[in-house]
Structure formats: C-alpha cells, structure tokens
Amino acid sequence: xxxxxxxxxxxxxxxxxxxxxxxxxxxxxxxxxxxxxxxxxxxxxxxxxxxxxxxxxxxxxxxxxxxxxxxxxxxxxxxxxxxxxxxxxxxxxxxxx
Length: 97
Known about the structure:
two-stranded parallel sheet
C-alpha cells in the first residue's frame, strides 16, 4: 500500500534539531513536505536544506511546514546548520530528523 498526495501520512515521534516532535501534532492540520537527503556535510545535500530554508516564507504563505530526515545524528545536524546558512543565506528554520 502506497501513500498518495492528500493521504494522511502515518504518525511518528522523532528527535529533531528542534526537539522531539509528534508528526501529526507538529504539522497541526497544515500540509507538510518531508524530504530526505543521504548525509550531512556533503555539498549537494547542503544546497537542498539551504534552498528550503530560503523559501520558508513561500511555504508559510501556502500553509506548508517543511521537515527533513537524514541518517546522521541530531548533533551532526546541529553542527551542519552553519554550512546550511552559508549556502542558503538564512539560518536553518525547520527541523531535521
């Protein structure tokens, strides 16, 4: 069984750069974009969250929250945040699982 656009995504609890979240509670009835990247501190992977951070105003206008997932630890994500800011021109402004 696949998940399609508009389906209710399964709920989960996860540790993120912004603390522990309950996915359904965190998104609070808004749309959500959950994207993944293979690893922190890689050049291409840094551009994705950097660009996403730069587009947060546009996502908010559309009632969309963004969240990313990576195989690395939350502490690694926090250490990676300055690189994301350098690339995106704005601070990391969404959680990374």
